[in-house]
Amino acid sequence: MFEAKYSAPEVDLFGERATPATDDDWIAPVAAGPVVASLTLPGSKSITNRELVLSALADAPSRLRAPLHSRDSDNMVAALRALGASIEPAPATGDYGDDWIVAPAEELTGSTTIECGLAGTVMRFVPAVAALALGPTVFDADDAARGRPMGGLVAGLTALGVDIDATSTDSLPFTVHGTGRVTGGRLEIDASQSSQFVSGLLLSAPRFDEGIHLHHSGTRLPSVPHIEMTLDALRRRGVDASSDGAASWRVAPGPIGGRDVRIESDLSNAAPFLAAAVATGGRVTLSGWPEETTQVGADLAHLLPLFGAEVVVGDGRITVTGAPEISGVDLDLTTGGELAPALAALAALATGPSTIRGIGHIRHHETDRLAALATEINRLGGDVEELADGLRITPRPLTAGRWSSYHDHRMATAGAIIGLVVEGVRIENIATTAKTLPQFPSLWREMVGAHST
Ligand SMILES: O=C(O)C1=C[C@@H](OP(=O)(O)O)[C@@H](O)[C@H](O)C1
Ligand SMILES: C=C(OP(=O)(O)O)C(=O)O
Questions:
Q1: Are 67 and 111 in a shared domain?
Q2: End of a domain among 235, 262, 289?
Q3: Nearest residue to 141 (alpha-carbon basis) of 116, 119, 176
Q4: Given this model, what pLDDT does residue 17 score?
Q5: Where is the signal peptide (predicted)?
Q6: Ligand 2 pocket residues where CB is under 6 Å
Q7: What pLDDT does 169 receive?
Q8: Domain co-membership, 432 together with 367
Q9: What are the mean pLDDT values of the chain's consecutive 10-residue runs (453 residues total)?
């Protein structure tokens, strides 16, 4: 379970304004004017955790350069070590901590317990690895994450002949009784609740006797770019992996190569920082912005202009310049649901109404994000209506108040965006940002405080 390794700083974060209240709430730093800042963000959660899994299943050692060090990636490292992989630090080649050298296990062994924490990538990617290990592996998670859906993955692995004990087939905890091999072959699953069910099967599939020919049978498929990220990561390691239709994928059996991989910055964690430029009419530059990527956060380059911002991408950087006013938007975010909290926060500060659709699945993220965003924005005086698959946001003047995080890093950072321009927003459990960005409070302070004009 989570230890206080990544606690929020208790010290003054932004002059007197950020002195913590009598409880542990974090007073969101208010921008004294347009925020003008340049930053580099740590590595991508989604790429780091895919590369860790592939490195642990590879046929030779790998080096991961500039990986993310956060609670989600630490949980992934611990999980793969528990199954027998060796993961050792090597001198840093990035700004945010050691590289990793990963040596695959000679033979994966179960008889262990894996704590997934709050990480969807651990609970959805590692069960198939455990099926390839010999012995039982128990999977559990924080109470807050035990309710996250697992049904599509459990049903898929079970259909492949993997023995899984569970009190509920749709959630943790459960035990995977690994036998050291999985036959694989043709499989149909319903991944409408999470693309991670698909990625979790594809990542281990080169090690299945017959690989996999996977079909999604549900009505909708969220977060498709994350499936493309999985296919891309497999191909870069020499695996024959492809999609043969919008909801069908093939991975051939065969070796996964060891690689020297540089992890890109996390472009989804870029969302609140770039949103700060939009919220304050300022200018924020992030370096480490890849020219080509499968990260859905790259879509911010065309999403933020819809709010009135100007965006320039090039030379490994993105610069977002906010306009004096924020426009309302009408967006379908089916492919990029993890960007929704930051964009909903901007919509709440806009001059006109917004609708964000295609994100029913984010009810299954760290919390029901549609309900959480509506509740928290409305608590500050906003007017947000929950739709079946999205939010309708009508801007109203917002006032000071408490913002609950629901153990959700992106809820905490959405509150920080609003707190830039609404004095007295107190964020409960800012430490939950450690899930993917332990440096959030200090980077935010640096951005707002040191560089405001
Ligand atoms: O595979 C991944 O790394 C992810 C897939 C997406 O999950 P969903 O398909 O559940 O939205 C995304 O929202 C999550 O943050 C990361
Ligand atoms: C949905 C998210 O996380 P997870 O990888 O835990 O699903 C997220 O980071 O927005």
A1: yes
A2: 262
A3: 116
A4: 34
A5: none
A6: 119-121, 338, 365, 410, 436
A7: 82
A8: yes
A9: 33 36 81 96 98 98 98 98 98 97 96 97 98 98 96 97 90 97 98 97 98 95 97 98 94 98 98 98 97 98 98 98 98 97 98 98 96 98 98 98 98 98 97 98 91 44
Q: Rounded distance, CA 105 to CA 180, Å?
A: 12
* Cα–ligand 2 centroid distance for 56 (angstroms): 22
Beta strands in 52-119 (DSSP E): 62-65, 86-90, 99-103, 112-115
Question: Hey, what are 67's tokens?
Answer: 């990986």
User: Do 162 and 270 belong to one domain?
Assistant: no
Structure tokens at 278: 């939009």
Coil/strand/helix, residue 31: coil
CA of 328 to the centre of ligand 1 (A): 26
Nearest-angstrom CA–CA distance, 387 and 371: 10
pLDDT value at residue 240: 98
Closest CA to 272 of 176, 346, 173: 346
Contact 24, 445 (CB under 8 A): no
pLDDT for residue 5: 40
Burial annotation 422-435 (CB, 10 A radius, 16+ → b, else e):
beebbbbbbbbbbb
For residue 416 the two structure tokens come to: 């920080």
For residues 127 and 18, membership in a common domain is answered with no
- Residue 337 CB less than 6 A away from ligand 1: yes
Token digits for 191? 């991944």
Same domain for 215 and 311, yes or no, is: no
Print the domain residue range for 221: 46-262
Burial of 154 (0-12, 13-18, 19+ CB in 10 A): buried
User: And the tokens for 397?
Assistant: 């003047």
Q: How far is CA 63 from the centre of its chain?
A: 22
Task: Give, as one character, the DSSP assignment of residue 48.
Answer: H
How many Å apart are CA 46 and CA 22, to the nearest integer? Answer: 36
Pocket test for ligand 2, best of 2, 45, 198, 406 (most atoms within 8 A of CB): 45
Same domain, yes or no, for 246 and 274? no
Domain count, the chain: 2
Indicate the SS3 state at residue 371: helix
**According to DSSP H, which parts of 285-408 are helical?**
300-303, 340-348, 369-379
Tell me: do 36 and 118 sit in the same domain: no
